[in-house]
From TrEMBL:
Signal peptide: none annotated. Residues 87-262 form the Aminoglycoside phosphotransferase domain. This is Aminoglycoside phosphotransferase domain-containing protein. It comes from Phialocephala subalpina. Pfam families: APH. Transmembrane segments: none annotated. Gene3D superfamilies: 3.90.1200.10. InterPro entries: AGP_Transferase, Aminoglycoside_PTrfase, Kinase-like_dom_sf.
């Protein structure tokens, strides 16, 4: 990988397009130019009654090496993120190859590579200490590569990959926020969210705001790096085959990846205490404040 590669929001595929096919992807190369991605109607038919859920389960097309993530809460930004990570970081950060997208009514359909492996969540307890070290060593390589990516130096912001609002589940149900021009601007917004539900919220003094640092770098962040989103091989020693579910990804303060990763697991668990610090720099002092805000927002 080139040192400090850059991602420019202006260089992403046009998210306003209702239909997008990445003809250079392996789907079209392997299946021939006449092969089309399944239509939204075909995906919905295979989903059956599951499509009525707020977030339907992805639909698999095994013979096409294809999986389709769809629903009213799926965002084009996730497909753009997969596309640019594969293009810029290649195998340094393994992600499913994205083949295209469709917008149909309220639903977005993202067509991507079916990764054949097991979740780290399902495999973890059966791994030896040596194999756990091997997985975390690989995760450290992956997160290090991801954090070396830089923004356009003339367009620094905190927001989703396509320079739109933040998509992290922490902000679900809150007024849309972002993009923000600085870390301080983001912190000012984030720290006010728990107080918006109170009368005269502007006059409430937030006791935790001073503990949020106003300085720091902005990093490309997965935002949901729990064991269920890490696909590993069944061979030993295991290898990380892909990091999936980039729905929350974007440009965030440098501590956000650690805080979110630590927040998605047991506070006193071995994964958080022993293993996460082997692939992400611990930020316990910020995490404590972060946890106060997320609890106040009702995030579980």
């Amino acid at each position: 990988m080139l040192a400090n590669p850059q991602i420019h929001a202006t260089g992403l595929p046009d998210g306003r397009e209702p239909t997008m096919d990445f003809l250079e992807s392996s789907f079209f190369k392997d299946n021939g130019p006449g092969r089309c991605l399944p239509t939204p109607a075909e995906v919905r038919a295979l989903s059956g009654t599951d499509q009525a859920r707020p977030q339907p389960l992805p639909v698999r097309f095994e013979h096409l090496n294809l999986i389709v993530k769809f629903g009213p809460h799926v965002a084009i930004a996730e497909a753009q993120c997969l596309w640019v990570i594969k293009r810029v970081l290649r195998d340094e950060v393994p992600v499913p190859e994205v083949y295209g997208w469709r917008i149909d009514g309220r639903d977005v359909f993202i067509y991507m590579q079916l990764i054949r492996g097991e979740t780290l969540k399902d495999e973890w307890d059966s791994l030896s200490i040596a194999n756990k070290i091997a997985v975390c060593d690989h995760l450290r390589q992956i997160t290090t590569s991801l954090r070396q990516v830089e923004q356009d130096p003339n367009d620094s912001f905190i927001g989703s990959i396509n320079r739109h609002q933040l998509l992290d589940i922490v902000f679900k149900g809150e007024p849309p926020g972002g993009p923000f021009a600085s870390v301080k601007q983001f912190k000012d917004w984030f720290s006010r969210l728990p107080w918006l539900r109170f009368p005269d919220s502007e006059n409430i003094q937030d006791p935790y705001r001073t503990f949020l640092p106003d300085v720091g770098t902005i990093k490309l962040t997965h935002g949901d790096l729990h064991q269920g989103n890490i696909i590993v091989s069944s061979t030993r020693p295991p290898r990380v085959l892909a990091i999936i579910d980039w729905a929350h990804a974007g440009w965030y303060p440098d501590y956000w990846e650690y805080c979110k990763t630590a927040y998605t697991c047991s506070y006193d668990g071995e994964w958080r205490i022993r293993w996460i610090p082997t692939f992400l720099t611990p930020r316990p002092e910020v995490h404590e404040v972060f946890a106060e805000y997320t609890r106040a927002l009702g995030v579980v």
